[in-house]
Amino acid sequence: MAVSGSIMVGFLVLHMIGNLKIFLGEDDFNHYAHWLRTMGEPAVPYRTVLTILEVVLVVAVVLHMWSAISLARRASAARPVKYQSKKKSHAQGYAVHTMRYGGVIIAVYIVWHLLDLTFFVVNPKGSGATPYDRMVADFDPSRWFITLFYVVAILLVGLHLNHGIWSAFQTLGLRSPRSNKALRALAAGVAGLVTLGFVSVPLSITFGLVS
């Protein structure tokens, strides 16, 4: 769970940085998209490195989901009889439901995102357009519902990140009375930065700041 989650966090941070290049203009964004596909050339064929990274990411996502299901089953098996007193804080219950149901929505979002901006099946411009044009067309004001879907999914990713990073700190034994506040702030900071970075792109396009 921790290893696969770390891989995904690293990917999200790098992916966010790349997406923000859209604010530098069409040429910079298209150049970045081209560079992703030509990494390693001429030592390796076109798109080899990117494909390897995508495979690693898919494996990490599958392992993360498998780990979550396995841990839930182990916890249930270890305590087949429910507690007589359900003493659970509001924060704990909220976190559990966010991770569980938010994870399902995030999985649906990942599938849509791949069909949209990787395989271009549901993108208005299709495979014949430039990466910049596809991105702008995707979040056109007339397609506000797509923007809304992306923003909601990214907000759930942020909540997932916040709780996941904090849980990882606990699992690794880094939490202590002295480090508690700092680690919570770090988890919230990383989650907030990634969320803000990702939502800024579709919102800027929908509201005409990027066109």
UniProtKB/TrEMBL annotation:
Q: Which terms are listed as keywords in the entry?
A: Heme, Iron, Membrane, Metal-binding, Transmembrane, Transmembrane helix
- Localisation per UniProt entry: Membrane
Pfam families from the entry?
A: Sdh_cyt (PF01127)
Q: Does the keyword 4Fe-4S apply?
A: no
The cellular component terms of Gene Ontology attached to this UniProt record, alphabetical and capped at eight, are: membrane
Q: Which GO terms describe its molecular function?
A: metal ion binding
Where in this chain does the entry annotate a coiled-coil region?
Answer: none
Which InterPro entries is this protein grouped with?
Answer: Cytochrome_b-558, SQR/QFR_C/D, SuccDH_FuR_B_TM-su
Tell me if Iron is a UniProt keyword of this record: yes
Q: Which Gene3D superfamilies match?
A: Fumarate reductase/succinate dehydrogenase, transmembrane subunit (1.20.1300.10)
Q: Please, which domain of life does this record's source organism belong to?
A: Bacteria
Where would one find the signal peptide in this protein? none
Tell me where it mainly resides: membrane
Q: What parts of the sequence cross the membrane?
A: 7-24, 44-66, 101-122, 142-161, 182-205
The protein's name in its UniProt record: Succinate dehydrogenase cytochrome b subunit
Say which species the protein is native to.
Actinomadura barringtoniae
